[in-house]
């Protein structure tokens, strides 16, 4: 298959400093379906990278100002292909133990036709635009062959569990196990600021709930955990960030939807 795609202009990644020591990194040329947020948090003693994008081009050399000379914990909120691509580039690689095996032996393809037809139908039913030939809209460089894409598996250096703390020296994040989107999905909550890094358990776009490893009952339990937290801002795995009011709205809309679809009891 020959790619009829333009070559990306400039950096493959796009970086935005959102203040408070937090940087958002995106891959704008990746299809919106797989365009995940990569979050970087500067800490006093070490930094935290939350998720690692698609791994189409190396992340670390793209931003020496973030990574050079710094100890960085690369933590995967879960192990879907759009969240783990660059995790292998870092010395510290953390994931929930339920998903450690997937981090080590991940699967992924940029060829849309490789996607399981049921999954593809689910994405389209959830409201995502139909996919093109590839999951990217530009090539990272000339001669790049999207069919050659492989995710690099990596062994976790630490298996994290519910209730642990990720400590950056001056910032502490509580680890929450929030399954639903995937069995070992985790979110990170910072009590001092009320910031929640949610991964894919909730974001302000079409949530996926009927694919492999997804479970509506688990989602409901996770939503209850989120509702109890004094959250100020949600930085999620996809889409723009939002506040507590929108969080409650999204949760309410999915509860209603799943009830009307007969997936949960009325
Ligand atoms: Zn995901």
Automatic annotation (TrEMBL):
SMART domains attached to this UniProt entry: Lactamase_B
A GO biological-process term: antibiotic catabolic process
Pfam families: Lactamase_B (PF00753)
Metallo-beta-lactamase domain sequence ranges: 35-238
InterPro entries: Metallo-B-lactamas (IPR001279), NDM-1-like (IPR050855), RibonucZ/Hydroxyglut_hydro (IPR036866)
GO MF, any single term: hydrolase activity
Keywords annotated in UniProt: Hydrolase
Domain of life: Bacteria
Protein family (similarity comment): Belongs to the metallo-beta-lactamase superfamily. Class-B beta-lactamase family.
UniProt-recorded name of the protein: MBL fold metallo-hydrolase
